[in-house]
Structure formats: C-alpha cells, structure tokens
Amino acid sequence: MGFVKTRDISREIRERCGVFAVVGHPKASELCYYGLYALQHRGQESAGIAVLNGGRIQTKKGMGLVADVFTKDDIVRLRGGSALAHVRYSNVGDEGGIEDAQPISVKMWQGQMAFAHNGNLINAPRLRARLEQDGSIFQTTSDCEVIPHLMAKSGLNDPVKALIKSLSDVRGAYSLCVLTSKGVIAAKDPHGVRPLCLGKLDGAYIICSETCALDAVGAEFIREIDPGEVVFIEEAEHPGSDVGRAKPPVSCYIDGARGKRGMDLCVFEFIYFARPDSDLYGINVHAARKALGRRLAQKDSLSADLVMGIPDSSLSAATGYAEEAGIPYEMGIVKNRYIGRTFIAPTQPLRELGVKIKINPLRKVVSGKRVVMVDDSMVRGTTSKYLVGLLKAAGAKEVHVRISSPPYRFPCFYGIDTSSSGELIAAEKTQEQIRELIGADSLAFLDVEDLEEILGRRAGNLCTACFTGNYPIPLEGEYR
Ligand code: AMP
I want to staple 304 with a disulfide (CB 3.0 to 4.6 A). Which of 112, 370, 448, 476 is the partner? Predict the structure, then answer.
C-alpha cells in the first residue's frame, strides 16, 4: 500500500490489548485473574473477566488496573469451567469508558456470548454504518462489536460457522476470543499481526496474547495460533469437577486462509510491546531486543564511558549494546514503578521547581560522563528529548542517543496507539533535525534491513509498516 498521510489518529487507534481465555478448568476465573496480571503491560485502562457457568455467562469489568478492578470476592463469585478475560490499553483523550471495556457480553439468537480482542478492524466504521442502517443498535464504540452483529445476521446457528462467515467480511489485525455456551473460539486474522498462543494446564486449555501469561499460571506452551486459524475448544462433560477437562482443539481457517500467504507479525511486538520473558514464534523477546542492541553497537564507533537503558522496555537492547561495544552498562535513571492510574502529575510550576516523581537520574553515575542512552523506539521524540535534558541537567558531559529500531514514520492502523498526541517526529524531520531537537550529541537508528535480518529470518514475515509505509492489509475509507 502506498503512502499514508500522518495525522492525529488517536480517536481510532487505541486497541493495544491483552486477552486470556481458559476452557475446562474449575478455577477458570482465578487463572484469568493471574493471566491478566501477566498481561497488564498490554493495557491499563480497563480489565474484565467473563465466566461460563451452566450455559450462562457472567461478567465483571471495571476501569483501571487488574488489582483495582477485582476483589477476592469477585473471583470467588465468578465461578465456572471456562472464562475469557481482557485488559485494555489506556490512552489520553480516549473517549471509551466502561461501556468499551471488554469482554463485551451479548445475548444473540444463537445464544449468549462474550467477545474480547486485541487489534484493530480497519473496515469496522464501514461495517458498522451498514449494520446501523440495517437496524443494528450498538452498545459500545469498540470496533469489536461489529463481530456479534455480523454473526447475528449470518443466518447460521452454529457459533463457529457464524464467526467464520463474519470474519470473512472483516479486514484488519485481530486476535480474538469468543466465550460461547460450550467453550471458547479463538481466531487470528489471516495476516497474523497480533500474537495469540495456545497452552495446556491439567487437561484444560488456555489461549492468550503472550507466553508470559502461560508461565504465570504454570501452563505449558503448545503452539502459536496460525494466521487465519479459528480454533474451537469445547468443555468436556463434567467441567464442574476438580479436574480440568476440555475436548481437544478443533481448527479451521478463515476464507481458506491456510497456506494462502505468510504472516505479517507486528515487528513492534518485538521492539516494545511484548514482555521480555515472552517468546514469539520461538524467539525470546529479550534475546531479540538484545540482538538489536548488539547490531546498533556493531554499526557504531563511539567512545563513551557508559551505556544505559530506559526502564523497562529498552534495558535488553542496552545490555546488548554494552556487551558488543565493550562499554560498561550502568543504571542511569530510576523509574518509580508504583505510579498507578490515579497519579496526579505535577503542575508546571512544581515541575519547574524540579519535582520529578516518575523518573530520576542517578547524578553520581552520569555526572561528567559520556553517556550512550539506548531506547527501543522514537515515536514523537518526547521521551528522548525529556531524558536527554534530564541527563544533561544531572551533569552528563555528552548524551548519545541510540534507538534500537528504525525511524517511526508511518501511523499504525493495526492496533497500536502511536500518534496519540501529535506527530511522528521522523515523518517530517531529518535525522540531524531530530538530533538537534532532542538536544543529543549524536543520534543513530537501526535500518529496516537490520530488523529483517535479525528477526525476519527467524520469525517469517513481519509487518514493518510503521517504518516503511508498506501496509500488508489494504487500508480503506478513513484509514487511507
Ligand atoms: P515518544 O516519546 O513519543 O518518542 O515515544 C517513544 C517512547 O515511548 C519510547 O521510550 C518507547 O519505549 C515508548 N513507546 C513506544 N511505543 C509506545 C506506545 N505505543 N505506547 C506507549 N509508549 C510507547
């Protein structure tokens, strides 16, 4: 796909989320609760769990972190053998409130179901307009809600068949789970942009966004869900017993997607989103980031006193850089990890007084030093600019910024919120202009070829649209 203009897409793009589903375990809601904790980095705006009990679906959702939303009593009350859980991404200026929290529970003529997804359906606005003209009444602003409406109009009684038929109309990036009266249906879009994997625990099955959530509940990783695959896992006869019971997963493919094409896994999952202890298609995320950091150092001939990362997402890349360059790795800043959603940011006059709650440089470490500051990405340049200023104010003699990804020049339409408050700095500016703007002594990025070589060769195809403007899923309507 060709060039796409950079613009503020905050209202449309806000679905960086995590999903976690369990089939056939007596403690399904408890597993979901711990699974969501492990996926909290994928969304902090809202959290929700839906459970299936005796053919009925019961849901609890709320705004905020998993710890804020659920009490112990909630988890005890949410009894059932299968469950579906979701954490939703937070975005400043986001209009979505509690009604957009997932799972979205609906009663349709085919039965009660709950839906949760990660991604962005590019043709949702058009589908929704058509459905509304046909009389559908939507309850949320979430793009995911078009799916139950399409299913209800499919004329098919079987939820799996109705879902497959509906998904053949949907374009975009999605990793979706549906809780039905029998179990869970999981689906990944034919390009496989967002991650989704299958695991097993005590005869029960788990489907989730990242392998770190399988580890969190002691489940065994089985495999990634294929691009275009729809997996149905049904509860076995007596799910109420103490032993987990589920029938083996049954797979089919959207629109004959199987074997039709490769995948386009989002490269940003490796760069920033996923947790370092997750594996994506057999590649450990920490190891991948470290290799990217090493590559940065291989392309460099810098003399410096120390290398530092930005907690937490660039620490892996920074250690890779330091090892390769033979420059000591140091802790240059400390991030306060206990800042919750309700944190009130200091007002400008207080900021001018030097009130720094979220991040503090280690003055004694950086003072008088030539510092290499490695970050995983530069989107608007705000973080780099702020941190270079902070390090210089703490006495750093030189600050050399190294970004372990290429310049981010094109907006993402597949589920990443990357231009929430303004422009992509690299879309309009040269590297030298950016360096000047962020106040760094030097600046370097990786090339797309570096990513492809380090990740692509092992991960198959990757979506690099944010760096190249080559959008693997054709854009349409307002996204064009
Ligand atoms: P920026 O400050 O706009 O240049 O964004 C880059 C910084 O934000 C880097 O430190 C990244 O680790 C982090 N980052 C990258 N992508 C995202 C995202 N989608 N949401 C939140 N933070 C991000």
Answer: 370
**In a 10 Å sphere around its CB, with 0-12 CB exposed, 13-18 middle and 19+ buried, how is residue 337 labelled?**
exposed
**DSSP line for 264-298:** -EEHHIIIIIS-TT-EETTEEHHHHHHHHHHHHHH
Closest C-alpha to ligand 1, atom 11: 377
Token look-up 């372990």 returns 404
Nearest protein Cα to ligand 1, atom 9: 377
| Predicted local confidence at residue 353, as pLDDT | 82
For residue 428, the CA-to-ligand 1 centroid distance in Å is: 18
The Cα–Cα gap between 10 and 422 comes to 9
Measured CA to CA, the distance from residue 208 to residue 211 in angstroms comes to 7
User: Is this model's pTM higher than 0.85 or not?
Assistant: yes
Residue of 165, 192, 186 lying closest to 266 (CA atoms): 192
List the beta bridge partners of residue 199. 206, 221
For residue 343, CA distances in Å to 258, 360, 397 come to 47, 16, 33
**Residue 451 identity (one-letter amino acid):** L
Q: What spacing in Å lies between the alpha carbon of 145 and ligand 1's midpoint?
A: 28
Q: Nearest to residue 122, comparing CAs of 425, 413, 453, 416?
A: 413
Q: What pLDDT, in 10s, does the model give residues 77-119?
A: 999 999 999 999 854 435 568 999 999 999 999 999 999 999 9
Q: Hey, which residues does 463 pair with through a beta bridge?
A: 266
Nearest in space to 302 (alpha carbons), one of 119, 442, 452, 140:
442
Contact 101, 48 (CB under 8 A): yes
- For residue 20, the 8-state DSSP code is E
Per-residue pLDDT band at 337 (split at 50, 70, 90): confident
The best mutation among 377, 384, 414, 420 to test binding of ligand 1, ranked by most ligand atoms within 8 Å of the C-beta, falls on 377
Instruction: Return the closest-CA partner of residue 190 out of 479, 463, 473.
Output: 473
Dist. CA 394 → ligand 1 center (Å): 23
Confidence of residue 5 (pLDDT cuts 50, 70, 90): very low
- Tell me the pLDDT tens digit for each residue of 230-273: 999 999 976 455 556 899 999 999 976 665 567 899 999 999 99
